[in-house]
Amino acid sequence: xxxxxxxxxxxxxxxxxxxxxxxxxxxxxxxxxxxxxxxxxxxxxxxxxxxxxxxxxxxxxxxxxxxxxxxxxxxxxxxxxxxxxxxxxxxxxxxxxxxxxxxxxxxxxxxxxxxxxxxxxxxxxxxxxxxxxxxxxxxxxxxxxxxxxxxxxxxxxxxxxxxxxxxxxxxxxxxxxxxxxxxxxxxxxxxxxxxxxxxxxxxxxxxxxxxxxxxxxxxxxxxxxxxxxxxxxxxxxxxxxxxxxxxxxxxxxxxxxxxxxxxxxxxxxxxxxxxxxxxxxxxxxxxxxxxxxxxxxxxxxxxxxxxx
Amino acid sequence: xxxxxxxxxxxxxxxxxxxxxxxxxxxxxxxxxxxxxxxxxxxxxxxxxxxxxxxxxxxxxxxxxxxxxxxxxxxxxxxxxxxxxxxxxxxxxxxxxxxxxxxxxxxxxxxxxxxxxxxxxxxxxxxxxxxxxxxxxxxxxxxxxxxxxxxxxxxxxxxxxxxxxxxxxxxxxxxxxxxxxxxxxxxxxxxxxxxxxxxxxxxxxxxxxxxxxxxxxxxxxxxxxxxxxxxxxxxxxxxxxxxxxxxxxxxxxxxxxxxxxxxxxxxxxxxxxxxxxxxxxxxxxxxxxxxxxxxxxxxxxxxxxxxxxxxxxxxxxxxxxxxxxxxxxxxxxxxxxxxxxxxxxxxxxxxxxxxxxxxxxxxxxxxxxxxxxxxxxxxxxxxxxxxxxxxxxxxxxxxxxxxxxxxxxxxxxxxxxxxxxxxxxxxxxxxxxxxxxxxxxxxxxxxxxxxxxxxxxxxxx
Lengths: 308, 461
What we know:
Chain A is mostly helical. Chain A has helices at 13-39, 58-64, 69-102, 109-121, 124-134, 141-148, 160-187, 192-200, 205-216, 218-234, 237-242, 252-260, 274-307. Chain A is built from 13 helices and no strands.
């Protein structure tokens, strides 16, 4: 067997190169994750000087079955699934559509690529503020459009489902650029000859897309689906900026933040419940893990079937 | 050769990275380190009378919340403090009020702050509350992160009851409270009231009639900073207060089940809250932030702004000539029930226990507490003073004067929900449409009580 770095002790050089990366991975990613799991079994507040007590499964019991706060947590889980489903499906479809359009030799394609990608480079706060202005219910642009039809709405400040829908729209707007770019990269790897051959064989646009482009886009499809699903399951920052703590409109990620930093409506000057928040984040992790692994498995099977 | 040199370079880089990350072990002082009991190198230890430019430079880190009149005053005060203590530079951070607890905890834990403005330092968890999470300030004290101010001479400048009620815990003083505020009242546009012949309402029916009058004239009745959520709740505070005037007893009653959210009396409150949320507040109020609502009111677009007295200075900032008044929100049909002004002790100063500059931090509080400076602060932010001899010489002071004898601390200053209680177990008017999903007061009342009951049962009450 040939080794890039030679034989003998040099064989271990690649491993050595990995050490710094692994070190930082343990330091900033795996380490905190393991610590979070440990803290989920404690009553830690995050304040130095306060004893940390082992409480066993108490935080999980409270999160999953205690009183009616558990019901609210399941509403948050349901909202998380709903949010993730719509964001994934629409962002995926829109990103693909934009990529197909901008992959053609049309004037201004580069400009439009930049424009559609632009929101990605803005911070969440900036993204949120832009949507707040657009959806300002006292005469903002959206309200004026509604006014043309004699309608009035609180928009982000309205019913929880409606507020969540607007956050879905903002989330898609903010991230569709990434989906588009990944698809564009995938489209540009498809050999032109294959499409030309299909055309010569009499394939129309739809047949070319279905039988040539779509199968060859499989790696991009898989990447986008996984990124969209995991990203949207964990999303909560735009909700913080756009709708804040709103009973009925919470997602699981927001519950973790609100419980950990005393931002619920349980009382004024609430203590920080970081042990409980850690338990909520472990539940979120398990949800993401289960859906992520299932999706990954299904996508790999599909990839093997299509590409061998 | 190439592979060997690559390996050597890599090992050198790795060693450097590990050395940079590792730093100095905490328990291994360098040979030339000062003794363990010596102050840190950058610490200035005050000697009497050394407040001059020659003294060791000190940066005093102050944390306050975003409130325009407060920030403006503090910038002026800091300049005065720096002039009095030339060696001190005040590094003031301003954060959103909602973020203040998080930033406070983070910076206290990191020993990155000296003087902090803290809210809600009023009522610790009560004995009848079982298995509740204590307020954040209580936890910070128990963690030893706040300085014991007991015996400091500047405490004598304040009313003893203000120190006792909103600054003390377990017999020690940890905060000087800087003023009270009322939040169960309504700002009203006197010119609009005069123009449309509306008298200041003293009963619920009169308030409804006033709003109908303004609606007929195509003028919005009320607004609130709904984008921040809580202003819609606070705006309806008078409704809770007029029905349950003893708010400490209300909280204890809810915990002991002698008062319920689905009683006939409470359902009356929920019904009025629905009218307040759906009919009184202008459409689109949910888009206004708390800081923007006073501007909306001062523009003359709405007749009333139900909000805390801290909005007075903000209204005057927008339109100093506006002719406005303030009356208690009349939640009851009996005027006698509507005479109370509910409110709270507002912000106060605490000092970090681990501050490297305790002398300067205490000097900061002492100078702030001097009557002439405190009067200037009250003039700026329009709090009800907690120092004797200081007066609220303003329009707000005149408007509040008739109600100060009936000042009472509000429900939310006492309330801590039992663990396991659901999210509807609080009397928030913002649960009603158009701001949330509820449109049936009786159904919401039942849900609120069910959520509370679930929590009480969960903690074994």
